[in-house]
Design the sequence.
């Protein structure tokens, strides 16, 4: 069993060298590997999920589309991912997507750090007042993470998972 790592503040590099940073094009293969490994570990990797389109165009889908995409890196190895882009139906909502951590690095706070950084980025964009996300029913630890960070289940739930939401500025009050 791997020893737990010490996770410093977002963007800070310490002894165990975890960094949460914005995606760069050379990260593409590592990001896709994390996606496949995480789904394989959950028994969810199948034909329908083997090559999602928005992984091939991260720059266009996230960074060039009023969003962001982050990677977590430890000692030069990308171990986690997460991104957001606008909801196609609600212009004041950012949708967090692709929150994955390599199985051997899970339960060490990496997903929490990525999510906190994504929320910080979303708060910097005045068009967003809400955050939503979906997690598969096979990912109960992800659901626990989202609840612990203030997300609540939203409306009618799909059979294959849970939709969570978080209001950033109640009553449309802005900082």
Sequence:
């Amino acid at each position: 069993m791997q020893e737990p790592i010490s996770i410093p503040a977002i963007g800070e590099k310490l002894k165990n060298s975890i960094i949460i940073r914005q995606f760069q094009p050379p990260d593409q293969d590592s990001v896709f590997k994390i996606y496949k490994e995480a789904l394989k570990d959950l028994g969810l990797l199948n034909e329908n999920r083997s090559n999602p389109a928005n992984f091939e165009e991260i720059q266009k889908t996230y960074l060039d589309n009023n969003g962001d995409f982050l990677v977590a890196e430890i000692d030069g190895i990308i171990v986690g991912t997460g991104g957001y882009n606008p909801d196609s139906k609600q212009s004041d909502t950012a949708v967090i997507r692709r929150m994955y951590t390599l199985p051997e690095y899970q339960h060490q706070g990496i997903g929490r750090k990525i999510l906190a950084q994504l929320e910080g980025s979303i708060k910097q964009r005045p068009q967003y007042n809400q955050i939503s996300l979906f997690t598969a029913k096979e990912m109960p630890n992800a659901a626990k993470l989202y609840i612990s960070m203030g997300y609540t289940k939203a409306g009618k739930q799909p059979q294959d998972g849970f939709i969570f939401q978080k209001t950033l500025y109640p009553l449309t009050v802005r900082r």
